[in-house]
Design brief:
Layout lengths: L5 H22 L15 H4 L7 E2 L1 H12 L3 H17 L18 E2 L3 E2 L8 H5 L12 H19 L6 E2 H9 L3
Helix pairs in contact: 1-3, 1-6, 3-7, 4-7
The structure holds iron/sulfur cluster (2 copies).
């Protein structure tokens, strides 16, 4: 397999993200509950019994780049939230356990998802609140995006990369310096 530089892979990752976002918005999102009118904004990101999003090394690097561009005080605050989440929810010992859930440290009250525009994970792009299960986007949309992400990871790091809970992935791969 041809090696892809990390910076080039990050651009391609952005294309995968944009494609998924466009497909979800065009075909499905209009049937979901409006987040703007939500009575419990952020419940989807902060429910420690619900959030189980796993991301790859490359996605963690993309998120780390967004965090790295924030003012230093805000960066320190987020790093603390990430560390706290790893400890509180026992995420270091997940060993691939998909039932380990957590409140996402990237959600900010009043702002929303800190990485919404530049580095939102694929499952988060796919997620919305639908009244009817029949209106949900098909799993294949997310599966295709995650296959593309996995391919980018293999091409960049020359080996399969684990999909880890968001806080742990950022801690392992997204924090530089
Ligand atoms: S996804 Fe659902 S819970 Fe989250 S903000 Fe939107 S409507 Fe509210
Ligand atoms: S990455 Fe963003 S959208 Fe996904 S769970 Fe965290 S705050 Fe919510």
């Amino acid at each position: 397999m041809k090696t892809v530089s990390e910076s080039s892979a990050l651009k391609r990752l952005s294309d995968v993200r944009d494609k998924l976002r466009t497909l979800v918005a065009a075909g499905y999102e209009h049937r979901a509950k409006s987040c703007i009118a939500c009575d419990t904004p952020g419940a989807c990101c902060l429910d420690e019994h619900f959030v189980n999003v796993r991301i790859s090394r490359l996605e963690a690097v993309a998120i780390g780049n967004v965090i790295g561009g924030l003012p230093s005080g805000k960066q320190a605050e987020i790093v603390t939230k990430i560390d706290d989440a790893i400890e509180k929810y026992g995420l270091v010992d997940t060993n691939g356990d998909p039932t380990k859930t957590f409140a996402c440290p990237l959600y900010e009250k009043g702002t929303g998802c800190l990485v919404h525009t530049e580095a939102k994970p694929m499952p988060c792009i796919q997620h919305a609140c639908y009244e009817n299960a029949a209106d949900l986007p098909p799993d294949e949309l997310l599966d295709d995006a995650e296959v593309a992400v996995d391919k980018l990871n293999r091409g960049t790091y020359r080996s399969p990369q684990p999909f880890l809970p968001i806080p742990l992935a950022i801690k392992r791969f997204g924090m530089r310096g």
